[in-house]
Hints:
The chain has 18 helices and no strands. It has helices spanning 2-11, 17-41, 46-77, 80-88, 93-132, 147-172, 176-181, 191-212, 216-236, 238-249, 251-259, 264-275, 277-307, 312-345, 348-356, 361-399, 408-433, 438-444. Helix 3 (46-77) runs parallel beside helix 6 (147-172), helix 10 runs antiparallel to helix 12 and helix 12 (264-275) crosses helix 16 (361-399).
Amino acid sequence: MLRLALGLLRTRPHLFAGAATALLMSVAVITMFGSLIATAIGGRGGSRLGMIGGAFGEIAMLMALFTVTNTLSFSVRGQARDMALLRTSGATPAQIKRLIRCQVLWLTLFVSPPAWLLGSWGADRFLEGLATQDIVPAETTVVWSPWPPLIGTLATLLVGAGAAKIAARRIVRGRPSTVLAQTAEQGKTGWLRGIAGLLVIAGSVPLVVFTARQPADKSAQLALLGSLLFLVAVGLLGPVLARLSIVLLGLPFRLMGRRHRGDAGGALAADNLRGHAYRLSSAVVPIALLVGLSTTFASVSGTLQEVAPPGVYAESDVWLRGVELAMLAGFGAVATVNTLASLTTARRREYALLALTGATRRQLMRMLGTEATLTALAGVVLGVLVAAPMSMAFASAATGELLPTIAFRTYAPLVLGPVALTVLTILFTGVRATSEPAVTAVVAQ
């Protein structure tokens, strides 16, 4: 089974690029912040170093869980036809699950050595930055220990195995012939998923109230954790929220299509996205992740700069928030690019059928451009809505007012960045997906 898993990895490496990157980042950040905690335990850097390592490591593990789960699910889904063919040749569902777990094992083992080096290097650089900000003594050095790298690999492997198990359920359920006949686009919001999303929102309300009553320093950390909880709710309720956002945002495009006597460019894109809410939610959630976290950080940093007294503490705290944002933005960018590229590539047959019915490549790219714009806007809207409750709660705790202070000169790039990343990823992948002859693409699917 290990040999077969390795063979599949070598045959289709493009399917696993995003998952490998996410696994590498997961092992690296756990190694990095685990090394900082080990340094603090060893009596160096003071108690604040241990608190920083623990707080950053907690958030990094949550982000790693999200990103690894997201990227691995697409890698497994991309092999649905291959796994169905294996089942038709006699493979059992248990063997398919074991094969996928072996793939995760190989990927984790491959990326671990460079991730260990990256994590160790990151711990050194981060500690230097802490010393520059006078958070730790200047002579502090990282204490080497074998445990952070090993824990990083083991924790990432467990997360990856769990994500692969969840993703494999869809492949092994039902008959192989049914899986072969399915497109990559089927799926719907189940009632259990919807109830879970509503329960997460309901559970987040007390956290919002609690955050508003805490001191500013504690409230800032709670604001980020609360935004992550609201992002979980968006992920669970994604198809419903995505369809609603496209109905509203796509209205101008549909009106424009009527005005130009049925010009289907924008109208087709809007209706297409609304009709494929499951696919749309998979694309929107990573964008909402990027925008939501960016908005929360911008709110916390801007408000802190306004209310905190001038001095080293305020500057160092803002610096820490910036480092945390950069780390989480890296995870969010990997999830966004992998999701958008996978979804766009999976629609090769759809593009080919449109081409065979008379659509030109220019028209296809116009449609993709409009879809990319609507997808990005939907992600921005949901991201801002995700950040709003906790940002307002933090503002209430820090200033007594509901509206946080945001430096728009700093905030604008944080929003425009995900939008540009979305549009460029979809268009670049779309150019490659439509370059294949239409007949070949239809037959290949």
